Amino acid sequence: MKKPTNKQLALLVTIALVLVCAIALVPSLAAEPNSSAPLNIFHTHKWKKATCTKPKTCKECGATEGDPLGHKLEDWKDDGFDSTFSERVYVKTCSRCEKTIEKKTEKVTSFLENEKLTICPNTYSKVFEKRLRELNDSDFTVHEEYDYKLTVYSINDSNDEMAGQLSFSLKDKNLDPTLLYAEPLNYGIVVMLDNNQSSYDKKMARFLVAMIEACDPSLDWDSVGEIVKEIDEQGAASRNGFTYSRTKNGGYTLLQASIITTVAAPTETKTPLDHDTVNKELDQVRERLKYIGQTSQYVKKAIPSAKEDGADLREKVTFLGIDGEFLYDIDKDSGKVINLFFKWPLSDYASDRAYAVNTLASYFGNEYETKDISQLNGGNDMNSYDWWKTTDENWDVYLVVADEHYDNEGGSIQFMQLEN
Hints:
Helix content is 25%, strand content 33%. It is an alpha+beta fold. It has 3 domains: 77-108, no CATH class; 113-259, no CATH class; 275-417, no CATH class. A hairpin with a 5-residue loop joins β4 (77-81) and β5 (87-93).
């Protein structure tokens, strides 16, 4: 066999090297997309958006690009109480990922702020139960119940029998469960127990102490003892914005904690408008009375600022020097305007009533019929004034002012201009 030349040997070596390299590349080309093997030149990244903690990342190969977004912190938010109700928890969350990033606590020194409890009744019941169970030999539990459509909390003893009731009042009225118990209110606390049950004195003392401690976490044991002694001697005691009292009502004892409220200074009564000024103001009403009998669509086209309110229309105006609204009462069947009202929220009941009555009287005269219709307003002050055909224009003007008003509409004037 003829010996190969040097050129032939060199060629064979080159071919062998090429084959070895090709064999070595095969596993790399077959590697999984997310492995650490180098990518082939034809790979297209499929990016997953960057997050607060991770940069933009390829879904297939794991390659990254850029930087994480970083957390975008919101302001401190109240996150409620700790398990002992002795600390208030505040958190900062990220508006992007909604995770809690920072947390801090503040010691609770008061549940009272701006003459309102900062805890809702449901939370108060939990604080009351905890304080009650911390007392020696006090194995009581508190359970939410409904009694005659009112929400109450049954205070049960170790035998799971009711020893008393915890309830709440709002302005001396029972707190309706529809207010339930979602936000702080200016409410009173009432603990009721039967005078004839066994261990009455022991239970009454424990309930009174727990109620005081649940209202005011700033009190030490000696201060609570002073309040209890004062109640024993005088029937009531006041501390740090609360008045605590004990009274007997038939066969029951009522332990009460009421928030002390300051009486607001009366608002200075505005000077009533004179005859000529009222006459100019009434030009607004004269124009709008032309819409009586027109459809709501017609009124909306004529007054673009009039907004729908259910079946009616409202137009924001300043009338008689008061910021309020004209309300166009629409008949549901015909879709036509049947009444015109001016309505406004009261700033001060007595002051607003005097101003409105005296202003209207300066134009329509002092001959008007007045009625006390407080019974239609749950017993709260509500009075009506009716001027009828008092001028050559044959006006019917009906004013109603209510102390406790619904939907922030405490003053209402209905206008009609009758045909001669």
